[in-house]
Amino acid sequence: MSFKELKKHYLPYVAVAVISALISSFVVIQYVQNRPLYASENQVPQPHQPVQVAAASPVATALDENTIADVAERVSKAVVNIDTKRVVQVSMSDFPFFNDPFFRQFFDVPDTRSRTVPAQGSGFIIRSDGYILTNKHVIEKAKEIKVTLGDGREFNGKVVGADPLYDFAVVKINAKNLPTVTLGDSDKIRPGDLAIAIGNPLGLQHTVTAGIISGLARSLEDPRESGSYIQTDAAINPGNSGGPLVNIRGEVIGINTAIIPSAQGIGFAIPINQPKAVINDLINKGKVTRPWIGITMQELTKELADYFGLPDTQGIVVTDVVPGSPAEKYGLRRGDVLREVDYKKITSAKQVQDLVRAKRIGDKVLFRVWRDGGYRYVTVVIGEMPTSLPDSESQNE
Questions:
Q1: For labelling alongside 65, which of 126, 303, 345, 393 has CA 20 to 30 A away?
Q2: In the chain, how many domains are there?
Q3: Residue 301 falls inside a structural domain
Q4: pTM surpassing 0.90?
């Protein structure tokens, strides 16, 4: 049989085989694409069997359907609603009618007008004799503060003290034997830990939302930079500000503070260890006493190291010196490169901040400085941080 005869005889069978193979391949591909992805076959849940969640810690093994409700019920007793009234100046230029020259011929229209604006926030009781922790921006410039407890009682509140560097404040009400929260340790939290937010968003008192810790050391100014805020996906809305972010044990780990309105599930809280360290100062002195030298800094890049004639990028560049500060008084200059602090090599601006803040006011700190192509030592006596600083200095000092 010739090749032409073979081709004519077997071609229909070959075509059928090819079509069958294509159909089988398509079915297999569709099955693989649409099935769940598992690490191994023995992890596929069987019908009518609950999926087992591996416990990451002893706390996780105690979780059940009532855990979050139990935590919320216990903590909510110490969460308060804060209503404020503040006076703001409204520019009359915002109203075109009052800018009409014809109208102004007959009426004397002021450039600005005072207006009382109501606002709402949250807080939580830290002492049974009526001390409440909240955000500074909740009570800032308020001429009237009304605090509503979980049991419905209302009290007039008075600001005891506020922190100029971080956004928190203490409010006092005249009450006793109040329920209080337990303050946790925000240094021990990790991304993925469960988180519960409790507050009064949009006036909806004692709203409970739950999520996880999404990230740590976040910056509100620049997402690319390291900061001090906790990021969470527990829903936070206007009115949640000042309320507690708690862990699964019911311990407060943060103060709910900010959101990104254009995003979903991106909220921020102040780590509770920040106010914990200064609460007694706020209550007893009405202010926070912090060590301070008065400089702003930036990291030493390869380009800057080459410019200054340094062999490496170890150190921090002083970008500005606050007028009248201890740094100016004792001789630090803009453009100095801090290579060592108290004989410790410097690798980050945060390290300088931590070393200074570990001192007491009146202590001395020794800097090894690279200036004008050579080394010198500068001793600075630590001062007290002023109660008011420009934003840039507050964030970067």
A1: 126
A2: 1
A3: yes
A4: no
